[in-house]
Specification:
The protein is α+β, with helices and mostly antiparallel strands. It contains 2 helices and 13 strands, in the order αβββαββββββββββ. β2 and β3 form a beta hairpin.
Length: about 180
């Protein structure tokens, strides 16, 4: 009977962990914000890697003087963005943890890591469906969802303001799609 009780407690702890994790993700999803950012051209050899489109942003490119401040490639970095002309642009980079009180109205922070003189935020690749033509980076903008901790994820890619890849109905014809917000 003692083993049965221990097994029940262990299953309960695991269930509690999963429910807590799901609740945390849901809170971050609801409490975050959506921002529109421009995509910058990428070296053509890196544009597509397998079934993924490689994306680069202005806030991903670190100046040599900025990189010298970080000790290692595992260091966290926070980039502050502000709205300008309909898209968000970088304002500053910080090696210390930022909080909402450190931001001005309208600003958003992204949490990333430094790797090979570039900042990575987990939004640098997007899956390309089979048979869909890859758009030019200069034609792309991206809706990012940024949670309250600074973690970003891609909501939608846009080509000339239209969702990409286009949604397809079961009959094979494109269907109208909506952008976030």
């Amino acid at each position: 009977m003692n083993r049965l009780r221990l097994a029940a407690v262990w299953v309960g702890v695991q269930a509690l962990f999963i429910v807590g994790w799901a609740a945390r993700n849901q809170i971050n999803e609801v409490s975050g914000t959506s921002i529109l950012v421009k995509v910058l051209p990428v070296d053509s050899s890196e544009m597509t890697r397998g079934p993924f489109l490689t994306l680069s942003y202005e806030f991903s490119r670190a100046a040599d003087s900025t990189v010298a401040h970080w000790q290692s490639s595992s260091d966290a970095v926070w980039v502050v963005l502000r709205p300008e002309g309909g898209v968000y642009v970088p304002v500053r980079v910080s090696s210390r943890r930022l909080f909402a009180k450190d931001l001005q109205t309208g600003q958003v922070m992204l949490l990333g890591r430094l790797r090979r003189s570039r900042f990575y935020f987990g939004v640098e690749q997007y899956p390309v469906p089979p048979g869909v033509e890859t758009p030019a980076a200069s034609d792309l903008t991206v809706w990012l969802h940024v949670d309250t901790t600074g973690v970003a994820r891609i909501e939608q890619l846009l080509v000339h303001g239209s969702p990409w890849p286009p949604a397809v109905t079961p009959s094979g014809t494109p269907s109208p799609a909506t952008t976030p917000r």
